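Record type: monomer structure entry
Structure origin: computed from sequence
Chain ID: A
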Amino acid sequence: MFHDEYQVIVIGGGHAGCEAALACAQMGCKTLMLNLNIDNTALMPCNPSIGGPAKGHLVREVSALGGEQANAADFSTLMIRWLNTSKGAAVRALRAQCDPFLYSTYYRKLLTSKNNLDIHQDEVTEILIDESQNRITGVKTRHGSEYKTQALILCGGVYLDSKIFVGECEFKSGPMGQNNSANLINSIKNLGVQVGRMRTDTTPRLNIHTIDFSTATPQLSESEPLCFDVWGVKKVYDTKDYACWFSRTTEETYNILSENIKRSPLVTGSVIAHGPRYCPSIEDKFLRFPDHITHPIVFEPVSTNTNEVYVQNFSTSLPYDVQFKMVRSLPGCENAKIIKPGYGIEYNYLLPDQLKHSLENKNIHGFFCAGQVNGTSGYEEAAAQGLLAGINAGLYVKNLEPLILNRSDGYLGVLVDDLTTKSTDEPYRMLTGRCEHRLLMRWDNPAHRLTGYGRKVGLISDEKWEIIQTRFENEHNEIERLNSTRLTPNENINALCEECGAEILSEPIFAGEFLKHRGVNYDLIEKITPPEIKLNPDERAYVETELRYAGYLEKEERLAARMEDLDNIKIPEDFDYDAVKSFRAECREKLKHFKPASLGHALRISGVTPVDVQLIQVMLARNAGRR
């Protein structure tokens, strides 16, 4: 039997596993990544896209903390678009169609060249712990190897005892025909960890040369230079090389579904796990919205080097013969050929309410979990969790305090807080609507919120830190300048306002205040009162938003500070909830189950009221007085 010892071991090489392993290695920890198939590192088995509202914010936050997903997306982008441009600064975000082969290549090259990081293809079959201390000690693998470790990060994705469904056909498999991990789940259950089942679906992949796009509406890339990475070099993507195509299902599609829905695993009972609410299969749509005859779809070419097309909004687990008929019913697909059938996949996940906000298991020291194994969906949610788990595993082996993000720190803070205080029984998707402080967590300010944390743990280089500090200084100086520059109405200023369709300046006003007026933007302000140092597009966007929404931002910051005060009042792990006699039964049960780390966390648990939190606070004060 082969033996070796590492400070951190990462199980899985998906989006979460890649970020976790890279973070640990960058922090100086001797790290091992064990992956079922290294060729499928950072696999994109579903939609080949990155970003969108909330998800794009997560990608930017990963970048600001020192992670790599934004760089992988920029390296592989084929087409990129702004979304929610008419809905305000809080929810504006980028979404890119990516080449999955280039995306994977970026991560593989980085992983195999990283200091302190070993990559090995093998299946973990058993997790080893010291039962006397409930502490991780190592893992065993299918090849008979045994590795010792101080910390373990499980990033098993959808591979844990997963099963594929294509109509009446079902078989054990990972996504896209990959091997699954059938043995590890038994070891996890033996540790006393609670597990559940979830499902997700994917679409048929079509041959691009067999589709007639003449009836579809093309969508091309933005003409302006763009990128995800906070430090990235923006570029324009050639709009002639790639397009997505918008279309709709037909009445014929509806009739085929009506005739064959009884053959769906969702109806036969073969699949019992909950599927994604916000990305439903075509069968889900038919069952939930029977009055909707047609539905929007998007033809998304997977790569410029292959003929494969992903059909967005058309995921299915119906039998192959039904899929064939449905595909042929789509506009322009009368002669379309299926390269890969759609399928449903059901898999095990670990109930996330068993985790601390550091993503460490509450009962097993050194056992961290990240990604879809925590009940989430999406590459972005997985990568963000992987990065946070990697950071905290690295801090754990160094005996340092974990990094805990508040809900006002970023979408990642909201994601982790939702999972650990509310849990989930369906695939969790990050949405802007989940974030009560989203105006504080915009696309343009992740570096202001998070780069300091990344620098502190060792993920931000001196060069990146110097660049971002210069940016902060430029933004601060420009905000100060505009707030102290008084504009007086004159013919030149009003001519510029009329030219831009902006409100006329009718009385003296500070430039910062004038930015709040109708039709006024930073471009206009720059023409009226040019700065000494010309700002780059990111700096301009930040300055404009900070000044335009100044009053709203101050209000949000006050609200966030109040909740942060509650988050800073810690509850000891051994707090005796039975000693508080005034608790209702539901409240006591929930508190003992979730074991909140602070008063703020307790308040966000369903079934716990502000009065209950006040009772805990009184008891904490009494306990402190007895010491």
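Annotation 1: The chain has a mean pLDDT of 94.
Annotation 2: The first strand starts at residue 3 and ends at 11.
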